[in-house]
Amino acid sequence: MADLLLVAVLVLDIAAVVDILGSTAEPVAKVLWILLVLALPIVGMIVYFAVGKKRVQA
Question: Quick check: helix, strand or coil at residue 24?
């Protein structure tokens, strides 16, 4: 069960990083978001999809 959770977090983190790289944000903002997602895998991903995605795409 724990392995499945780890795989799910990994897949969602990769999806967040790909989404960040494909965004229209400034390069510095992209790097900061990617660092947040990689440093705090679960929290960073949730914060990005909840708050950051709206800010990055705008």
Answer: coil
